[in-house]
Specification:
With 374 residues, this protein is α+β, with helices and mostly antiparallel strands. Helices cover 30% and strands 25% of the residues. It has 14 helices and 17 strands. An eight-stranded antiparallel beta sheet has the order 13-10-12-11-15-16-14-17. Helix 7 (183-195) runs antiparallel to helix 11 (277-287).
Amino acid sequence: MTSSDVRDAVRDATAARAPLRIAGRGTWLHAGRPVNATRTLSLSDLGGVVHYEPGDFTLTARAGTTLGELTSATLPHRQFLALDPFGDPSGTLGATVATAASGPLAYAFGGPRDNVIGLEVVTGDGAIVRCGGRVVKNVAGFDLTRLFTGAWGTLGVITEVSVRLRALPAVDETYAMAVDDRPDQLSALIAALRVASIAPLAMDLASPLLASRVGAGSTTTLLVRLAGNAASVRAQRRVLDTFGDVHDMPVDVWNIVRTAEPASAIVARLSARPSRMASVWTDAREAMAGVPGAMMIASVGRGIARCVLPETTPDAARRLARCDATVIFEQLPAALWKEIAPSPVSDRLSRDIRERFDPAHVLNPGVLGEAVAP
């Protein structure tokens, strides 16, 4: 498959007024609002690294390239792509960028909008558009790269992605510490951690069930990933020791965290200012109280709590929706989307942009909650 093949498929769908479901490897099709489509355009055959310049720490790959394949390509050069969305490594680069999905490493490196430097996209009117570039310093023109990133394929089909890479640190270690998650104690701990002399790659709170699954204990646990040279990591570890009983974790703990949630789960993200993380944690914990299999992980520095529920617990999802935070559902049973999900994307600016790039509305119709023709 080539970008021209994608263009032809989009043009054919537009001419036939046949809505398209855009898919990578199909590992996350249950995420987002239901798509009302009659055809599926799979990019699973649009894979492979197009250009890799280790000296510039940049790489360009086709959208169907998996995150695991990118790891295999960059590891021999002691480099890595700092995008680690929840799910396994079979997820694709294109889907990660299209949904702006991120994981624990966003604490230090940001999400896709901070790591993607250029895109090739096939728009809904069948044009092949290039934006950004293959070098980090490229900043010319309007930033269409950020516009397409996180648009869930509603503006165009991402066919190629250029990213910035990072150097693997000499030392990369993760530590765990049991914490008291009563509101006052947790609030004080988070406030102290935010000003402590540490610079973690990731620093997340794990609920008791998730902590037990990664072998970190059976209570609310703080997971901290420190990296750098040996002296720097030792110094930061000494700072962590002042907060409580810290113990080492295996190197693959973050992979276990990212793949712990069932594919059919209800998933919600609660976000607020980082200074309010303790109250968000408390609200979410109370909303999920008594639900077997409920898990939560929260980024201390980003103010985002990711809540995972069995799909058979709609009442708990309704309680999460009422929490004092911005609540975004990634996954819900189809019947619950209209009931508890946030309002559809329907403001005038969003509508005008959609009209410009996909005038026939053939790309992923419904995924943003907009009304679609029956």
